[in-house]
Amino acid sequence: MELRHLRYFVATAEELNFRRAAERLHVAAPALSVQIRQLEEEVGVELLERDKHHVALTAAGRVFLECSHRILRAVDEAVRAAGRAARGETGQLVIGFIAQLSYEWLPNVLRSFRVRVPNVAITLTELTPTRQIEELVARRLDLGIIGLGLPDPHEELQVEVMSAEPLVVALPHDHPLAGSYRLTLADLAKERFIFTARTDSPAYTPWLLGLCYQAGFEPNIALEADRSPSAVNYVAAGFGVAIFPAQIGRLNMPTVRFVPLDDATPKYQLCVAWRKDNKLPALERFLATARTVVAARRKKPRGG
User: Fold this and answer.
1) Backbone angles phi, psi at 160, to 5 degrees
2) Contact 184, 215 (CB under 8 A)
3) Are residues 97 and 173 in the same domain?
4) Would strands 48-50 and 167-172 be described as parallel, antiparallel, or unpaired?
5) What's the rounded Cα separation, in Å, for the pair 249 and 145?
6) Is 129 in contact with 141 (CB distance < 8 Å)?
7) Which of 79, 258, 278, 293 is the most exposed place for a label (fewest CB within 10 A)?
8) Of 58, 86, 114, which one is at a domain's C-terminal end?
């Protein structure tokens, strides 16, 4: 039995006239009659009573018509659902993120994506960059907001920069440098530093060390924190100073003063990563939305 047999039968049962049904289906009436007869032989019962003057549904035909309608509706919905999935309009995405570095642009991306593609379910998982990379490689994440990038080559992963922003120094509010308008890294040469542990931020920590070396000093690392909020708390308690992307500096911390580093200091690049072989249309839709939101934000004047 083929779907065309069901469609032929439905048209004939609704028209109760072979000529009109044949015209509706754009087939010849004798051919339609042959197809209906083949269907009845396959089903094993008579579905239509017909003679030269009229066509009527048998009791079995009425039941079969109901079932045929359900089957054809299900097939049509399956076709539509497949099309929506192929266009990235349905499905599920699992996204890893660094909370303290995602609270500004990620909500905007999620909001825009939800408006554009409301039927894609998104699961957010807060993970360190190290864990995100592991989960991406293991195919348990579709997208990772990993921070500065990959510490080691991963041929299976694709990386893209989503934003770049200047760095700030976090100092205790009563620190001698806390009143500065702007600082250089060299100004911090004698300070005690709070760094993020390399195991949690495998790309950012070596990069920051490199910046200090280029500025002519080896930083005195007093403590290592697992996440930026912990490092900020250590700064507030007077354990040392820390360097963060500028968005951390926009947090309201009365006991911490965030001072921008000079413009010559390289900017922090926030990257996303995904598997190159992940061809989910919903992922591409999400990335396209993220690029659009980021581009619009770049064009928007600061404070606008």
Assistant:
1) -140, 135
2) yes
3) no
4) unpaired
5) 19
6) no
7) 79
8) 86
**255 and 280 both lie in a single domain:** no
Task: Classify residue 301 by its DSSP letter.
Answer: P
In a domain, 258, yes or no: yes
Range of the domain at 120: 92-163+269-299
Q: Which of 68, 51, 60 is nearest to 16 (CA)?
A: 51
Contact between 274 and 145 (Cβ < 8 Å)? no
What's the pTM? 0.72
Give the count of domains, the chain: 3
Position 142, amino acid: D
CATH number, residue 54: 1.10.10.10
Examine the domain organization and report whether 154 and 279 are in the same domain. Answer: yes
Residue 245, classed as helix, strand or coil, is: strand
Q: Check if the beta carbon of residue 201 is closer than 8 Å to that of residue 128.
A: yes
d(CA 23, CA 29): 8
Task: Give the C-alpha separation, 118 to 82, whole Å.
Answer: 16
Residue 39's SS3 state is helix
C-alpha span between 108 and 41 (Å, rounded): 60
The pLDDT tens digits of the residues spanning 66-120 come to 888 888 887 777 777 777 677 666 688 999 998 777 677 888 899 999 998 888 8
Residue 262 and residue 276 in one domain: no
- At position 69, the amino acid (one-letter code) is H
Q: Are strands 157-165 and 242-245 parallel, antiparallel or unpaired?
A: unpaired
pLDDT at 89: 65
Taking alpha carbons only, the member of 88, 109, 89 closest to residue 97 is: 109
Distance CA 81, CA 88 (A): 11
